[in-house]
Amino acid sequence: MYYLQILVTITVGVLAGIFVGSIPGLTATMAIALLVPMTFYMEAVNAISLLLAIYVGAMFGGSISAILLGIPGTPAATATRIDGFPMSKQGRAGEAINIAAMASFVGGMVSLIILFSVARPLARFSLNFQSPEYFALAITGLTLCISLSSKNVTKGLVTAFLGLFLATIGLDELVSVERFTFGRLDLFDGLPFIPAMIGFFGFAELLVQAEQIMEQRRVAQKVTSVLPTWNDFKAILGTSIRGGLIGTMVGAIPGTGGNIAAFLSYDITRRLAEDEEKDKFGEGHPQGVAAAESGNNGVTGGAIIPLVTFGIPGDSVTAVLLGSLLIHGLRPGKSLFEQQSSLVNLIFAGMLISNILMLFGGIFLSRFYAKILSLKDQYLLPIIAVLSIVGAYSIRSSLFDVGLMLACGVIGYLLTKTGYSTVPLVLGIILGPTAEMNFRRALLVSGGSLTIFFTRPISLVLLVIAIIFLTSSIIQQSKNSARQRKMRNQAGMAG
Amino acid sequence: MRHKRCLVILVVSVLVLAASLVGHAYPQRPITLVCPYGVGGGTDIVARVLARHMEESLGVPVVVENKVGAGGAVGFSYTAQANPDGYNIVLVALPIVTLPVFQDVKITHNDLRPIGLVNGDAAAIIVRANSPWQTLEDLIEAGHSRQLRIGTTSPGAAWWIGAQILKQQTGIQGVDIPYAAGAAPMLTALAGGEIEVATCSAAEATSMLESGEVRILAVMSEERLPFFPDIPTCKEEGYDVTFSTWRGIMAPKDTPDDIAAVLEEAVKEAAHTEAFRKFLYDNKYGFEYLNPKEFKDFMDAQFAIFTEIKEDL
Hints:
The complex is a heterodimer of chains A (495) and B (313). In chain A, 76% of the residues lie in helices and 1% in strands. Chain A is mostly helical and 495 residues long. Chain A has one domain. In chain A, strand 1 (170-172) and strand 2 form a beta hairpin. Chain A is globular and about 80 Å long. Chain B folds into 2 domains: 31-120 and 244-312, D-Maltodextrin-Binding Protein, domain 2 (3-Layer(aba) Sandwich); 121-219, Periplasmic binding protein-like II (D-Maltodextrin-Binding Protein, domain 2, 3-Layer(aba) Sandwich). Helices cover 45% and strands 21% of the residues of chain B. In chain B, helix 6 (158-170) links the parallel strand 5 and strand 6 (174-178). In chain B, helix 2 crosses helix 9 and helix 4 packs parallel to helix 11 (292-312).
């Protein structure tokens, strides 16, 4: 009876997590924050399982709106959008959601196994991540997304720097001086990135589609063949295991989150692909969805590692989880492992069940979610508009954020129309503060010497990776344009 | 006919409602307790537990609402501008006296009415587990001969002030390395060796202490902390270094005296319940209670100290 109760709790949590995560603006953090007061009155085990179930569900749920509407439900689903959204434009939304569910499941399981077996050594290893490493990791994440999100590296760099500029708005946390806030409290904590993200992705896309509404293009969604086969699963298994490993490693480093993990997993998968396959990434490649989703769900187990070992939350969600653990008188750390091992085992079991339920829930829900897209644009676009506005408002109950979202939407629309990708821009906003603050902090530590970034092994390796990725993309680009010129010349001669 | 009946029902119900409100003592409906910090954080937890115990004596629900932003200024301002009817109160913390000093934030503790202080967390001086320093004296000696790398929060925030007081009172030299997100990343940096010493509350350091990654050299309180009976205070070691963060309840400035009195009593009772004190102790939060008068004087004194620190910079 007791276990049945927990099972019901987890089922409710996973489904609620998927649902909330799939609504733009309602992030996993928010879902958990809304439920913490409720879990206050529950038994510890029930409360923690519920929160973990929501976490797992919401991480996957974020991919649903990224795939269907092009608006990542949670920031971590940004990478999923790159291939997921084109897939749904091709009428393969159901397939994309299924792949996301399977990849999330594999990623989650991999991270759970690691959490169960090597939590403490991995947590100790994560202590090697200091300011120089955080800086290097943020820069690597940024160069990855520049090189992969647009065919044109120059344009990617332009939007990435625009994002980095927007990230400077707000309180400079190292010297406590306000920058570009114009005295507004709304901007004191920086540009609110979830409203900005909804604007750049969701509202901008809405404007693009509204323009095309007259053309009456209708994509029939293939909802009939939504049950994935064993072969479908096998096809993404390798990618997903790799994604899960990357996600866990990145998640275990406090304060990094699902974004970098998803992009890292995505880009490595793309680079490992055959040459003729490579071009298909970004245009609806199932492996792209699998890589991104397994990466961000791998973070779930990873982020719990520093939480349960050192009481250090790995991301905003686990920060809230920490609070609810404390409310129940459970202080994470060595004693939690040693004195409360039965509780810890229950937490692991709860996450295991959550992942399984997420897989089935995701596959089951995919057909209903895919149906949403068969709505006529006249109905669908207003719904997206309402979701965008509500999502932007709900973060801080602020009308300022709604205005900001609309402004970002218009800017995003103009950028999209002129061939600039908004992905590097949003990543710039998200990773900008991490990069800048850690760069300056590292210089404070080193007394102003830049060698600190190149004498520490992890930082050096990450920066070398970043440089290689960026230069190889630039070389690729100049090759491509040379080839195009040649072809044009040949065509001209033939004519 | 239909309209008339509706009108009658409306009038009667309004009258009944009015009658039920008039002549009844405060409180009648749920009270909103604004928490200016995020769900799940230390202040939020204290707010929720306190709210639960305040409900017992007030007899109405006390609903915690998180109004987050600008280091707490959003929540403070929200309540300062709210209706002073006793149904709006806020859990304030140290930033109410630091923000106006170190930041361009208009709101001060004088814009709100003190109800009661319920908790105080002394700073602990923390080093890495394998640090060469075993006592506060070792640390100070090292700090006199070279520049230490001292972990702080953002300038003007709690653990930055803790570090400034430590430096001023002991004369140690150091570079401040700020960790904006608070004690958690600061402790990770300490355990990883990026910084050599830091100050934060016992509650925040406990998990890392238990894991054996960090050690406490001394605490910045008047007396030893009940959960660390073996760790000396700075005063015992001969240095007049005290610093705490704290939390208390305030109401809009114009809240009437009779209503404030009810709230004051409820906060006092809640703070002194066995359950609340056990909650504080279990989570290594320090218990402290000040009545409205003492609370006001305390904030005035703190404001003066921080203004002085600011001028010395």
